[in-house]
Amino acid sequence: MAVERHSTGVSLAQSWRVERRVIWALVLREMMTRFGRHNIGFLWLFVEPMLFTLGITTLWTATKSVHGSNLPIVAFAVTGYSSVLLWRNMPGRCIGSLEPNLSLLYHRNVRPIDIYFARLILEGAGATMSFVFLTLFFHALGWLELPEDVLQVAAAWVLLAWFGMSLAIFLGSLSEISETIEKLWHPLAYLLFPLSGAAFLVDALPVAAQKVVLVLPMVHGVEFLRHGYFGSSIVTHFDVAYMITVNAVLTMLGLALTRKVSRTVVPE
Questions:
Q1: How does the protein associate with the membrane (predicted)?
Q2: Which of 132, 167, 207, 219 has the smallest C-beta neighbourhood within 10 Å, fewest atoms?
């Protein structure tokens, strides 16, 4: 990985240029490692999450799933399951990600946080391209209207991505301290799916249940996104300030843990 070394006497701009080059090099390496050059190659980056969303959309449509509103199942599935893929896959990519990349840490400019960022950028890009493509595809078929407020949908998407990234960095660093995290995350991720707001509208729940699910920050993100997408045709419940606060706390905890891990991890 041909990246210049800078340690002392460098400006912030120079450090940023080095950081960008390091992360981009790691992104390219990750793409080659994960997708290779065969079949459709890096296109699997967004085809894979798109297939998951299509599968859920087909299943929910076939079973005529009830979600507590008059929204079309396709619209409900695309906005809900795409959101789940965005935040849920990120921790899975970062947990245990340092072990197979220990040799990269011999490079002075490569740090554990760079490995996390490279994987998170790929996951975020894949989920985003899948969401945009499916929205345009179903709109072309006449099965889905375009968002009423694109900016709000984009803002909600950024909040959900921020939540996924901060959670991923936190759990990824924690997994270097305790192997139990890797064992616990997979069942926890499946348990969180039905509670994440992807498969229901909060307003359709009893008041007591609404208070419980709104403790989960991703529910606020999904409701915020659906409010931007469907507008006043549905009643939504969300607190953007709450989600930003949770994201900020998770980010600080994650970065603090990553700094601790960086001091103890041994390159091989």
A1: Multi-pass membrane protein
A2: 207
| CB 168 within 8 Å of CB 94 | yes
Rounded to whole angstroms, the Cα distance separating 113 from 27 reads: 13
The token pair that represents 128 in the structure block: 């985003």
| DSSP symbols for the chain | -------SS--HHHHHHHHHHHHHHHHHHHHHHHH-SSTTGGGHHHHHHHHHHHHHHHHHHHHT---SSSS-HHHHHHHHHHHHHHHHHHHHHHTT-SGGGGGGGGSTT--HHHHHHHHHHHHHHHHHHHHHHHHHHHHHHTS-PPPS-HHHHHHHHHHHHHHHHHHHHHHHHHHHH-THHHHHHHHHHHHHGGGTTSSS-GGGS-HHHHHHHTTSHHHHHHHHHHHHHHGGGS-----HHHHHHHHHHHHHHHHHHHHHHHHH----
Q: Which two tokens stand for residue 260?
A: 């601790």
The rounded distance, in Å, linking the Cα atoms of 187 and 189 is 5
Looking at residue 153, what is its pLDDT? 94
d(CA 77, CA 67): 10
**pLDDT above 90: residue 154:** yes
Whether the predicted model's global pTM rises above the 0.85 cut: yes
C-alpha 188 chain-centroid distance: 16
Query: Of 74, 27, 71, 70, nearest to 55 (Cα)?
Result: 74
Cα–Cα distances (Å) from 105 to 68, 111, 174, 228, 268, in that order, read: 50, 6, 18, 42, 8
CA–CA gap between residue 245 and residue 186 (Å, rounded):
25
**Percentage of the chain surpassing pLDDT 90?**
36
